[in-house]
Amino acid sequence: MKKLFKYLKDYTKECILAPLFKLLEASFELFIPLVIASIVDKGISNQDTGYILKMGGILVILAIVGLVSAVTAQFFAARAAVGFAAKLRSALFGHIQGLSYTNLDKAGTSTLITRMTSDINQVQSGVNMVLRLFLRSPIIVFGAMIMAFTIDVKSALIFVVAIPLLAIVVFGVMLVTIPLYRKVQSSLDKVLGITRENLTGVRVIRAFHREAEEQEKFGDLNDTLVDLQNFVGKISAVMNPVTYVIVNGAIVLLIYTGAVQVNVGNLTQGEVVAIINYMSQILVELVKLANLIVTVTKAMACADRVAAVFEIENEVNTPAEKFISEGAEIPFLAFQNVSLKYAGAGEETLNNISFRVKKGETIGVIGGTGCGKTSLVNLIAGFYKATKGGVFVNGVDIKELPEEEIGALVGIVPQKAVLFKGTIRSNLQWGNPDATDEQLWEAITLAQAKEVVEGKDGQLDAHVAQNGKNLSGGQRQRLTIARALVKKPEILILDDSASALDYATDAKLRAALKTIEDTTTTFIVSQRASTIRHADQIIVLDDGEMAGIGTHEELLQSCEVYQEIYYSQYPKEGGAANE
Amino acid sequence: MSKKAGQMEIIKKILRYIRKYMFFVCLSVLLAALTVALTLYVPILTGDAVDLIIDKGLVDMPGIKNIIKKIIIAMVLTAVFQWIMNAANNYITYNVIKDVRRDAFARLQKLPLKYLDGHATGDIVSRVIADVDTFADGLLMGFTQLFTGVITIIGTLFFMLMTNVPITLVVVCITPLSFVVAKFIAQSTHNMFSLQSTARGEQTSLVEEMVGNQKVVKAFHREDEVIKDFEEINERLEKYSLKAIFFSSLTNPCTRFVNSIVYAGVGVFGAFVAMSGGISVGRLSCLLSYANQYTKPFNEISGVITELQNAIVCAGRIFELIEQEPQIPDAEDARVLTDAKGIVELENVDFSYVPEKELIKDFNLHVEPGQRVAIVGPTGCGKTTVINLLMRFYDVNDGSIKVDGTDIRDITRGSLRTSYGMVLQETWLRGGTIMDNIRTGKPEATEEEVIAAAKAAHAHSFIKRLPEGYHTVITEDGGSLSQGQKQLLCIARVMLCLPPMLILDEATSSIDTRTELKIQNAFAKMMEGRTSFIVAHRLSTIREADIILVMKDGNIIEQGNHDTLLAQGGFYSELYNSQYIG
Q1: Is any Cβ of chain B less than 8 angstroms from the Cβ of A226?
Q2: Is B152 within the bounds of a domain?
Q3: B470 with B537, same domain?
Q4: How far is A165 from chain B (nearest CA, A)?
Q5: Residue A374 near residue A97 (C-beta atoms within 8 A)
Q6: Element holding A88 (H helix, E strand)
Q7: CATH homologous superfamily, domain A2-311
Q8: What element of type H or E holds B351?
Q9: Based on the domain organization, do B51 and B31 belong to the same domain?
Q10: Of A81, A375, B52, B267, which is the most buried if we count CB atoms within 10 A?
Q11: Residue B300 falls within a domain, yes or no?
Q12: CB contact under 8 A, A222 and B230
């Protein structure tokens, strides 16, 4: 949690001024009883109307000064809290942007989203409250004790006992409840999770008619949350009554010792009243503090959860490898004994893969479901790093390349076609923010998305809903291809990007891709033999191992896995007729 | 409707939720009254004790001991009552929240897909989670402070009137100022809280979209731009939040200022009364301390009012969701479709998502039990629309769809939908174990049945290799599973239920052909005797279909079997022939 304090640093001034003005207000409040006392002692007993009015004026002035300092305090507190929250949010968002794929897999998006939103809101109100009230309370408490010492040491000793007792209760309750609030929060996370799931999976849930069961499941999670909240609530609710008992117990003691002392002539009646008043003042402060503590403990629990995200650090890569050159020519791209094992996975997803690619070649990647095709291209894009061996671009291990450089090199069309809220133009410009309309249309035409865009109102400026919800799967897929093409990358990766396209569109797409300049190295991942059969090299993967590499004809001769795949799509007898 | 009337509406709705907990509300009010009475009584006792301590040798020790006993009893009772009251308040608040969330969730299950498709997930989630939380905080504050506050005011007023009427009148005359100030502030902050709420919703949507698709963001190195967009909203949110928080926090100092004026008034006026002998000094100081006690709750109440303002805004957003028009409920006498034979008839069906844009017009189709219908056409031609209609995710605008001779609007949704086995192109899995996911449609299935279904879907071998096999926990979007693996799980999910009709939406698009061939066999076995609708790309599937629907731009342009369509030489033959080009 301490880590979060640095986001308050820019608001040091506010953080000092807010409590300071709050203190000022409190001390002016402390003057009021003194003024009243002099009204009683001097004004009333001397029948001095002028003096009374003068003192009344002083009371009003004190009130005005109090108001001004309170408003100032509130302003600085609000500015510090809101500014801090804004900084924290943007830092956290930035941190999430920097997380590696592995860490994103681990953290889970719905948790990250709660931490970004409701957790930070709680932290914000916590900071605000602390600045406004939290510092004031201890000062009033100790101030009252010091005042008591100036009047009577013996009575003040009761303060010395009562205050630590109060501290134990206050902090004890805090210590017990903070971890519980954390539990409440994670229980709330689960409620959030199921709500999200039911929105994203609404079709499946309704198709299986699981509405009632989902409701029951939600009910259970909701009940767990409420039970926890009630339990924590009961513990927090202990604080006020217990402090009340302690303070009043102290007052009883003060009355008793006061009575004894007055009886022997060590104290006056007025002094006893004053000391009792100071003890009451402590109670008033504690009540305020108690109300605050719920907010603060919650905020602290939330702050911890936010801090936990900051603590996720991207894993350290295994050291870069040396490229072992065979012959004088350094290939554009090379895999050298590459293995990949995902964090927490049982076995390696890719095992000892080696191949070399010349600039401008088209490489097909084919293989069974889950054989590691996507993992292979993800390695080229640098999303995951090889756990053994190395991926080399122009003889340099990509672990040594800065992320921006790999990013500029590679354009990828992921399996899941995702578009973002905005316009078609704003989505395509993800590939290149400076792209002209002409360049965009060029990419759109290549990606066979021309009729999609032309069919929309506003064409390039047509609205795209969140996650591209207002477009069909195939439309989205073609636009994501266009998005990658806008980038004009040196390495273009199509990760099963034509799966939602019909054969005709798929064929047109491939024909179009051939027309782009031959400096572009293209990786096509596919299930369809027809999609990759004309590639310069075809990599056949089987269960993470490389089962073969070569051209269509070569593989058809030598690679059993490839034969199986091919003939499953083009049955020998029927296939011949169609060739 | 004016804003005020709108707020009243919302408050009424909140009260409806609270009604259920009337016993606890009454208990809370009773205990609040008792607590306040006791806390007001303790200072009197203390004062009495002080009166017994006059001077050296003039101390009534037995009398003091007697009073101390009373104080201790009062103190313990107060503590116990207070604790029970707090616990009761928590109970009421948390349970109301639970009820609200439950209703909101129940409504989600009944909302038409049209609403859900048209609203950002993040926005709905933030209503159910964040808004309810803010509403809860406001409600809890309201309970704990409003009751005690009001009762303290009444109690103190009573004691003050008993002591001195004119001075009490001074107090009563000045305090309404406090209300005016608080009300003024509350009104002017309401707007800012609305702005803050909207900005927050916008930000949640963005976070939801970007963090939800973080991998794509990273793939395109859009981190900086995304951060820029985020910053823009963040700055706006900061601005609105600052205003909302600052102005609402003015309530306390302002009402406190009014209190100080009251205090000064009592002091000066009381001093004059005391000079003329109308009140003793002791009584005056007692009044002053009551005046203080009397005005303090006003501070709290005004604080509560701003909090409640905020809570009402949030409650409004939740109720908007809860009151959203649900889909037309199943008729009482709606038919429960069991063991459907699988006759599907579409008669003169018209449909469009938005009235301005006509989509399907006068669509007729007759499917006999066990027939296979393939839906083909270029991408984005509206094939999924047909599924939306068959599954009754959307209702037709005109005409009718009949299953086994009954209009599907006269069949219960549940029985209609479970009569179809559906595998969609968009794979959706839930957070949980693989086992749970396959069991979605049949939670009572045994482990053996699940494994059998997984084997039939050819998912068994990859599941076996996962770290914990069938008990491997996957995250909401399937985490590290490949698209194809996810699709296999979705197929296994349907295999387990084996419903009488099937809808397969490009169901095998991400599965390699070797595996697919095996699944196709399983599918073929499954489709035997079952009416099936297949959105298909693969020729083999299409060729074997009894009926082929060719779609373009949302319309069904051709209908027939492979041979007749090919003979027609229309769009289908063009599609078919293009498959072998390139």
Answers
A1: yes
A2: yes
A3: no
A4: 16
A5: no
A6: helix A49-98
A7: ABC transporter type 1, transmembrane domain (1.20.1560.10)
A8: strand B344-351
A9: yes
A10: A81
A11: yes
A12: no
pLDDT value at position B513? 65
Contact A267, A144 (CB under 8 A): no
Residue A229's nearest CA partner among A194, A192, A186, A193 is A186
Which residues of chain B register pLDDT less than 70? 1-4, 54, 143-144, 279-283, 285-286, 292-293, 295-296, 298-300, 302-303, 378-381, 476-480, 483, 506-519, 537-540, 577-582
Whether residue B375 sits in one domain with residue B436: no
Report yes or no: B311 and B146 within 8 Å, Cβ to Cβ. no
Q: Which residues of A touch B250 (CB under 8 A)?
A: 71, 74
Q: Are the Cβ atoms of B46 and A416 closer than 8 angstroms?
A: no
Task: Inform me whether the C-beta atom of residue B292 falls under 8 Å from chain A C-beta atoms.
Answer: no
CATH class of segment(s) A333-578: alpha beta
Give yes or no: residues B155 and B97 share one domain.
yes
Mark which of B322, B338, B368 sits at the end of a domain: B322
Structure tokens at B514: 């070797």
* Surface of A (91-130) touching B: CB under 8 A: 93-94, 96-99, 101, 104-105, 108-110, 112-114, 116-118, 121, 124, 128
Indicate the SS3 state at residue A57: helix
Q: How many domains are there within chain B? A: 3
Say which residues have a Cβ less than 8 Å from residue B417's Cβ, sequence separation at least 6. A206, A207, A208, A209, B391, B392
CB contact under 8 A, A233 and B86: yes
Q: Do B262 and B404 sit in the same domain of this protein?
A: no
Q: How many CB atoms lie within 10 A of CB B338?
A: 9
Helices (H), B53-146: 61-110, 113-118, 121-126, 132-141
What Rg, from alpha-carbon coordinates, does chain A have?
Answer: 36
Interface contact A10, partner B, CB < 8 A: no
Q: Which residues of A touch B87 (CB under 8 A)?
A: 230, 233-234, 237
At A72, list the tokens.
Answer: 């100032």
Residue type, B539: L
**DSSP-assigned letter for residue B20:** G
Residue A214 pLDDT > 70, yes or no? Answer: yes
What is the domain extent for residue B402?
330-419+500-582
- Alpha helix locations (H) across A201-268? 202-207, 211-236, 239-264
Q: How far apart are CA B139 and CA B151, in angstroms?
A: 18
The enclosing domain of B472 has a CATH number of 3.40.50.300
- Cβ neighbours of residue B186 under 8 Å, at least 6 residues apart? B248, B251, B302, B305, B306, B309
Are the C-beta atoms of residues B324 and B113 closer than 8 Å to each other?
no
pLDDT tens digits for A539-575?
A: 888 777 777 888 887 877 887 777 777 776 665 544 4
- The gap from C-alpha B488 to its chain's centroid, in whole angstroms, comes to 32
CA atoms within 13 A on the CB side of B209: 24
From chain B, the residues in CB contact with A418 under 8 A are 213, 216
Q: What is the DSSP track for A73-85?
A: HHHHHHHHHHHHH
Q: Are A491 and A523 in contact (CB under 8 A)?
A: yes
On the question of pLDDT at A207 being above 60, the answer is: yes
CA distance to A163, B78, B116, per residue, from B157 (Å): 32, 20, 54
Strand partners, A355: A335
For position B46, what pLDDT does the model report? 77
Q: Indicate the domain borders of chain A.
A: 2-311, 333-578
Q: Does any domain span residue B317?
A: yes
The 3 state secondary structure assigned to A407-436 is HHHEEEECCCCCCCCEEHHHHHCCCCCCCC
Alpha-carbon distance values, B193 to B239, B308, B498, B518 (Å): 11, 11, 52, 59
Rg from Cα positions in chain B:
35
Residue B424 covered by a domain: no
How far apart, in whole angstroms, are the C-alpha atoms of residue A152 and residue A132? 32
